[in-house]
Amino acid sequence: MQLKNSSSSPLLFFIFALGLSLPAFFINLGQLPFIDDESIRAMVAFEMLQKNDFITPTVGGEIYLKKPPLFNWLVAGSFNVFNSYGEFPVRIPMILSLYLLTIAIFYYFKKEMTTELGIITALMFLTTGRIIMYESLYGLIDLTFSLLTFLFFMMIYRAFNEGKLLKLFILAYVLTAISFLLKGLPSIVFLGISLLVLFISHRKFKMLFFWQHYVGIALFVIIVGSYYVTYFMQNEVPLNDMVSVMFGETTRRTAIRFGFWNTVLHLFTFPFEMIFHFLPWTLLTLVLFTKGTIKKIKASPFLTYLTLILFFNSIVYWTSPEVYPRYILMLVPLYFGIIAYFYLEKKKENHRFVKFIEVAFGILITLAAVGAIALLFIEIPGVKHLILITSGLLVTLGIAAFFYWKQLQNRIYWLVIALLIMRIGFDLIAIPNRMYESEAVKGKEMTIAIAEKSMGSPLYFWWNPEREVTSYYGKRLTTYWLMYYLSITRDEIIYTNSERKPDAYYISPLWMVKNENIEIIEEFQPTGHESPLVLFRFK
Length: 539
Description:
The protein has helices spanning 9-26, 36-51, 70-82, 87-112, 115-127, 129-133, 142-161, 165-183, 186-201, 211-234, 239-251, 255-258, 260-277, 293-299, 301-318, 332-348, 352-374, 386-406, 411-437, 439-453, 480-490, and strands at residues 58-59, 62-63, 459-462, 496-497, 505-509, 518-524, 533-538. It is mainly alpha-helical and 539 residues long. The chain has three domains: 89-348, no CATH class; 352-437; 440-538, no CATH class. It has a five-stranded mixed sheet with strand order 4-3-5-7-6, with helices on one face. The protein has a two-stranded antiparallel sheet with strand order 1-2. The longest helix is centred in the last third of the chain and has 27 residues, at 411-437. It is globular. The N and C termini lie far apart (80 Å). The model is unreliable at 1-7 (pLDDT under 50).
């Protein structure tokens, strides 16, 4: 069944929401210090530029095998564009991926269903809690990977329906090859599961053995193989080490590591955790518990495809006890598309579940507007012009709340606008407050001071030569963010060294040098370190 849209207002709301999202996502984007995962991508890109070697990812000059290099190339390009190694350029690839994914969601749901469903699904993704409060703050790889994976889901579906088998497999394997160079083995998992779902659900399993499939496989081998042949020509890295680390990255969060009972517990908690992380829109899940849902899904080839792809690809994460919500971002638009479809259906019927959900959303907006009043009477450290900001929030959220209750047909759009206004408030209040009180900020400042104190002499991380090196963790004993801030402050790679050079500075955990003949210059313990670190020289 196709939902008809006779109003032009959804498109106007879409354009307005995209415009409002620009200040929402860009204000103070580069202010928060790096988290560790960001620092890895930034450091690999920094070291590529320092060495002028874009084939071999390294961290502290040591071979880094956990991820292929593609995302680091994007970060390195951003460094060059902005002429900076700071936080802002590291986060630009993530922001661009977020917008491209939002547009892709709109485009494909519009093509397969209706314009309104495309708009609503795209805006739900753009403003879901996990995006608003976390993913859009940090320069992580997952939104870029999710963009490619979502495109893969949509493109193979359309190519299959067009009967263009060669196009399907070329697109599938080219996108998977690019995704592989971003994140490694997870792209293969999505490829295998999704192709099996698509062809088995249409009773075309034999097509997986047609020659067109082998063309796709060959393209994948050529693209990925070209990189790795070049890599192994330049580096004497045992293939076994690379394979074991990549498999370790893929399996370390699964039942293989966490055991049976933790996995069983996760089977029960996973759905509720994901509902929490992707609020408020997951409240629409209620509309699935209405009469005729399964029948309507079966009646729509696209909804059937979304449901099957969502379910079978979720199994991998559902059975893995250590899963972060960002790992399933590419699946979220599929789920949002399904619940948005039934929301629009049930809204036409004035269903009681829709009434309940819309009242809950309305209470959320109203409480946010009323809550802004409280900010007028408290002092928040680090925030300038608090009264002006709070007054702006109060007025704009009040307007959003007013029109939410007044315009019944546009309620979902006014909620989107309210969420973006709340994010702007977060940018202007919460981020400056974090900058004022954050241990991460203090740690960054402490690290920069240590780097400046060591200027004029070589600086190394100390590694006791008697300590065993692992292929997975290498010689790392400090946080990645500390390593990165040291490197960019000195504008050089900080290597790990096991030679006792009296003319050099070293950084090490205190416990590792207790028996060494050293002069401690400074002892410090930035956040994320269980034991103190020391800046020292050998006597």
